[in-house]
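Quick one: structure tokens for this chain, please?
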Amino acid sequence: MLDYKLYEMLDKDIESEIDKVLDGKSTEDVVGAVDDISQKFQTGSILIGKVLRVIRDDVVVDVGYKSEGRISLEEFDGQTPEVGADVEVLLDALEDNTGLIVLSKKKADRIRGWEYIITHYKEDDNITGKVSRKIRGGLLVDVGVPVFLPASQVDIRRIPDIGIFLNKEIECKIIKIDESRRNIVVSRRKLIEDERHSQKTELFTKINVDDVVKGTVKNIADFGAFVDIGGIDGLLHITDMSWGRINHPSEMLKIDQEIDVKILKIDHDLERVALGLKQKSDSPWETFEARFPIGSKINGKVVNVTSYGAFVEIEEGVEGLVHVSQMSWDKRIAHPTDVVNVGDEIETVIMAVDLEKKEISLGMKQASGDPWEEIEAKYAPGTIVTGIVRNLTSYGAFIELDPGVDGLLHVKDLSWTQKVNAPNEMLEKDQEVEVKVLYIDQERHRVALGLKQMDEDPWENKIPEKYPLGSVANATITKLTNFGAFAKLEDGLEGLLHISEMSEDKVDNPSDVIKEGDTVEVTVIKMDRQERRISLSMR
């Protein structure tokens, strides 16, 4: 037994432990044992305990102290320990409010785990653990001890909800170990980047242009999609997705979709790869001309309408343009939507093909037959026809003869004798007129019409006979000019009264002698049948 003074040196809480091991020992041995036992039962120490019993949610553990300790069953990860089993625990406190010592298996496990980590791992090593919690700024990963995985280091791409990794086993790379704070930071992103770099280096030695490889869609943009082909993100441009028309890559692809793509181009310096989907099949343009010769009638769907025409899909990857001028024989179309809309199925005729530019000209009106094919027989030159004035211009009037067939009545063919400055002086829109067909240009789809030709040319006989040279007539002044005046002999017939023919005396200004509306006596001094002119004189 120890003497009284030695007991005073000891914490009374460990007297029984000392009595067990030091009875009959020397004072020197006692002091050494006391030091050992004192250190053993210091708070924060890890002790070997024995499971005595399990009471409901508590496990009673004996660590050789005067009192037992209780540990929550939760600290055993839901597994009930066997009675008599040894367990490592941490001494949290020598006594709680019930007189029991406070033990923790979880804290002991954490310390042992930490010791194992710093013994077996270093920065830049790979480590595997289970994601246990989502916290502010990232995730906690249990690798034996909880380590921090920042949100920015979860993946090489931004993940909307990192909570999808909860309860999953993941592998990471250790990027920081702080032994003083027992803190470890890991990165899954760094691990992926290193792996991808290794894969990329290896892949660039294996792939070749025209290879077809498997890939996974990782990102979709307006201009295309990025496809992971095993360590390399290749660009699949929207123009290389389909021979047909697509408005956005999402019409064909979705994130994480697995696809087979063809390698179009490899840039080893920039480490870039261009990919294609449509190139896995032959271009429909290669055999188009053989399958659809000029003049072929085809059915297609309107896929786009512009101010100048409509684009028609003939087959996947092949579109043609129906220009607004080729939509109707008989209608003047202000905008293509007056005739067609997107989604319409229409019949067209192939008019021209440019394989180099991949352009096709189509005609809608040609599919219903060309009314000009019979025009020459129906409207032979010299034929008298009745038509409707559809349009007036400065140079003439367009007369509709049949639906889709207009003839031009030129201003010079309106009257033999009357000076006509514009067609609207004699005609009105929608007026019905009788005209003569002068000639037909079948190739250019043109018909020339004449109104004055409905009557005999008075300049051939009638006018020269009525107004021979030297004849005298009364004329009405219709217009004064700086060189003379125009005088009307009868309706539709005027002659020129030159200033030099107004008086025997010199005339500086016609208005000094005559004015508009005056009736004067004139003599015919010249007749030009070819130019259809009469020269008059008052002298």
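Helices lie at 4-9, 15-22, 27-40, 105-120, 188-204, 288-291, 375-378, 462-466.
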